[in-house]
Amino acid sequence: MTIDKHGDIRKIKSRLIIDNKIADNFITDSGDSYKWLWLPSSNAKHLLKMRNSVHVLSNMRNTQPITEEAHMEFLKKYDLLQRIDFILQHQDSGEYVGAMYISLTNHGFEIGKYIGNKNFLGKGLAFPMSNLFIDFIRNNVKEIEKIVAVTKISNFKNINLNFKLGFKIIKSVEEDSWLMELQ
Ligand SMILES: CC(C)(COP(=O)(O)OP(=O)(O)OC[C@H]1O[C@@H](n2cnc3c(N)ncnc32)[C@H](O)[C@@H]1OP(=O)(O)O)[C@@H](O)C(=O)NCCC(=O)NCCS
Question: How far is 99 from 57, CA to CA, in rounded Å?
Fold first, then answer.
């Protein structure tokens, strides 16, 4: 991973965590309100239940479930990682909905998203959730100049969603995926 080429976000990330700065809460047309949590402040069991659901794993690079032990190891080194992860929570019920994250990979600063809780799938939540996260990154993490996404060619839903968010397809990568770039 070439930090020189892509910038180092760890300093600003520590600042944002200390200040508990996070993306804006939002209310949908149905009147439901949603808020964000930094991943280290979230409940590990609830988070893993969403992250390990079959429809999420099948669209991830690593299709194996994340164990609690692996998650704890990840948390220990979280501050040192070139990544930012937010969890979305439904305010009234307290249920976890999904997550948005950005991490430095071989392709650059790559965005990821999932709605792991089936109660919240197919309700048009993915667009505002992604848009607010992107706004947050653009406004607060100036070190990230370009946002990319890598999505399986079969993941039509996510490809359409990314188009709606302003991404364009750049090229095919990793045999079965598109590299998309936010314009
Ligand atoms: C991708 C994901 C977040 C979308 O959430 P969702 O609740 O299913 O989608 P929404 O109902 O909010 O729809 C968002 C957009 O997706 C697209 N979409 C939804 N259903 C679709 C379908 N059946 N076919 C094609 N596009 C579709 C549309 O552009 C839609 O916008 P619209 O409502 O204006 O038409 C969710 O399906 C998910 O978590 N999938 C597993 C993880 C994943 O694939 N992550 C992406 C790779 S990191």
Answer: 13
The DSSP 8-state label assigned to residue 94 in this structure reads: -
Q: Report helix, strand or coil for 138.
A: helix
Residue extents of the structural domains in the chain? 3-182
Q: Which of 29, 105, 157, 182 to mutate to test the pocket of ligand 1 (most atoms within 8 A of CB)?
A: 157
- Residue among 67, 24, 53 at smallest CA distance from 120: 53
The predicted structure's pLDDT at residue 141:
97
Residue 1 confidence (pLDDT) above 70? no
CATH, range 3-182 = 3.40.630.30
pLDDT of residue 2 exceeding 80: no
pTM score: 0.94
**Separation between Cα atoms, residue 48 and residue 29, nearest integer Å:** 29
